[in-house]
Every structure is written in C-alpha cells, then in structure tokens.
Amino acid sequence: MERCPCCKARLGGAILCPRCQADLSKVFGAEQSAQYWLAKAIRFWEEDETEQSLKALELSLRFKKTRLAFVFRDFLIHQQCRVILDLLTQKQWLPAKQWFYSLRLLLPHSKLLQQMHAFTDYLLVKNQEHAKSLYSRNQFNQDIIELVDPNCK
Fold first, then answer.
1. What does the alpha-carbon distance between residue 119 and residue 111 come to, in Å, rounded to a whole number?
2. What number of helices (H) and strands (E) belong to the chain?
3. Which residues does residue 16 pair with via DSSP β-bridges, in sequence order?
4. Among 111, 45, 104, 108, which residue's Cα sits nearest to residue 79?
5. What percent of the chain has pLDDT over 70?
6. Which of 52, 59, 71, 79 could form a disulfide with 44 if both were Cys (CB 3.0 to 4.6 A apart)?
7. For residue 99, how many other CB atoms are within 10 A of its CB?
8. CA-to-CA dists, residue 136 to 38, 71, 147, angstroms
9. Which residues lie below 8 Å from residue 33, measured CB to CB, with a gap of 6+?
10. Rounded distance between C-alpha atoms, residue 138 and residue 64, angstroms
11. For residue 71, what pLDDT band results from cuts at 50, 70 and 90?
C-alpha cells in the first residue's frame, strides 16, 4: 500500500500514517495474509490439489481483492468448467454438481456458472426420469412374463 486509505498521504512503507497517525498495521496484515493465501492457492494448483487451491484462493480474496487473485480465480474457473464439461459428457452428474458448489463460492453471481449449474440439474433430472422409465419397462416386462408363465421368476 502506497497511500493511507484515510487521508491519502504517501506512506513510504510506514505502519503509522505520517499525516493522520492512523494505525495501518491491520491493513498491512490483511495484505500479507492475502499474499500468503494466494501463494498457497497457486502451490496447491501446481500440486494438482484443485479443491484446496479453491479454498485458499477464497481466503486470499476475503483478505484483499488483488488483480492477480482475480486473474488466477478466472483461470481456475475456466479450467474447472472444462473438468465439469468432461464429467457431464461421461454422465457423471453428481461429481459435476459437487465441483459447482466449490466454484460458486468464488463467483456466486457468474452467469456462466449459473447456466452450467442449471444445465447440470436438467441432465440429472433427465437421467433420473430415464432410470425410472427403464425400471418401469423392466417391471412391466417381468409382469408380462409372470402372466404368461407363472413358474418363471
């Protein structure tokens, strides 16, 4: 931080503002915490621990919203959307839905994530309807077989 958030005086690295004497130690602490958690998020991503990376990035953004954190967040969301689409093409709706919950913490108002989440819900419902219709057809076939041949079970 180069300027005091209270009076806009130049700080020159001082924890106390030279003009208004505001104690900025908590603000500097928050900045350092944001940098720490952003570095952790990047390390977790490098180690292929995406879920931990998302949680660390969320903490970083709570301490301070930096340009780098936003760029990394957008990168992670873009990357995870690809993972979710892959899960959807493999008809793995529940794991895809679980990824959405993690991503929505980072960007709860994203139109893209809302649309993909709604699409996942649609596919999940369609899959359940399809499974019920298959069960009904199988049950119907079994009932027919039992009517024709009561000894066959």
1. 12
2. 5, 0
3. 23
4. 45
5. 84
6. 52
7. 19
8. 52, 50, 16
9. 59, 60, 63, 64
10. 57
11. very high
